[in-house]
């Protein structure tokens, strides 16, 4: 069986930046186990599998896998897969699309070279103390931005949002794997456990996402799902209207730019993130 696939860079201003993504078409007959094996083999942060296509309705269904597990929602796979569908697969090249993932249908819009997704309403979970981080990081109490709390937030996948005071604290960040794993398992409310550190520096937003996979500390080049959580956090605690660019991946030589456009009105969160996608390759996978 031959499976068509595309490789793209997502949230990338140019080729070989951003977060890599493999998009597999015609995957409706694949088992969950086979999708997981393929995702593990290609070993990108995520791979997507298109299980249903309805080009007449500008819609499709996908499943998202990291090398170790299936995701209910993830931003860069949704943005990148939508770009492939709208620009390479669907002949009418629609500007609006609907992509179904396990948490539901995600509205997609393309405006010029940016693809935007609309996130679900956020859940604000537990608040944590900065002293918790002394057990597994090199952060001191002076490294945290005391204007904001540390809080776990979910828009489908949950992240502990950690505000830092400056870019030096973000750049110098060092985490101890075993103690971090113990803390995440003890404190996170969901099965998806990850930390999303951010700071403002001279008006610019910078971030880093770190999690544990296969007992290894992993840093993501661009994390759309974490960005929707961060945008919700900033709308609630910083400003009810946000238009800015989130800089992620700079410290691992995969610069990523995640565009924020959000508004909070009468307890309703209008959360949109966008990004550019760069075409890298296409081919056939021998299943």
TrEMBL record:
Which InterPro entries does the entry mention? Phenazine_PhzF-like (IPR003719)
Organism classification = Bacteria, Pseudomonadati, Bacteroidota, Flavobacteriia, Flavobacteriales
Q: Output the Gene Ontology terms for molecular function.
A: isomerase activity
Per its UniProt record, what NCBIfam families does this chain match?
PhzF_family
PANTHER family linked to this entry: ANTISENSE-ENHANCING SEQUENCE 1, PHENAZINE BIOSYNTHESIS PROTEIN
| Family, similarity comment | Belongs to the PhzF family.
Q: Which SUPFAM superfamilies match?
A: Diaminopimelate epimerase-like
Query: Which species does the entry assign this protein to?
Result: Flavobacterium laiguense
Active site residues according to the UniProt entry:
46
What's this protein's name?
Answer: PhzF family phenazine biosynthesis protein
GO cellular component entries: cytoplasm
